[in-house]
Amino acid sequence: MAAKIRKKIGTMKKIIVSPEVNKKIQEIFGVTQPNVSQALNYRRHSQNAKRMRMYALSHGGVMLESKDEHTNND
Questions:
Q1: Which of 1, 5, 20, 28 yields a CA-CA distance of 20 to 30 A from 70?
Q2: SS3 for 70?
Q3: Helical ranges in the chain per DSSP H
Q4: How many CB atoms sit inside 10 A of residue 47's CB?
Q5: How far apart are CA 64 and CA 1, in angstroms?
Q6: Alpha carbon separation from 16 to 41, 42, 71 (Å, rounded)
Q7: Residue 4 lies in a domain
Q8: pTM of this prediction?
Q9: What domain range includes position 34?
Q10: How far apart are CA 16 and CA 25, in angstroms?
């Protein structure tokens, strides 16, 4: 039986901030650096993560987006 090949195209988003803003987010939201990293890399989607992203963007953060293409063999 021939294998099916599917291509999944998604968008990877990430927010880049200065170390100072990263530290400020940790202090304001009472979280650790890994928590900030996960929020800014869109790996967390809680209300707190959304607030951290909004704070980052309003304090000089830069949004990066890239199309990511995956091929799945079933």
A1: 1
A2: strand
A3: 19-29, 33-40, 47-58
A4: 7
A5: 41
A6: 9, 12, 28
A7: no
A8: 0.76
A9: 10-73
A10: 13
Which tokens belong to 44? 């967390």
The answer to the question of residue 5 being in a domain is: no
- C-alpha distances (whole Å) from 41 to each of 4, 22, 30, 74 are 31, 13, 18, 29
| Residues 63, 47, 14: CA angle, nearest 5 degrees | 20
Tokens in use for 2?
A: 């021939």
Using one digit for the tens of pLDDT, what is the confidence trace for 23-72? 999 999 999 999 999 999 999 999 999 999 999 999 999 999 987 665 55
Helix and strand counts by DSSP (H, E) for the chain: 3, 2
Determine, yes or no, domain membership for 1: no
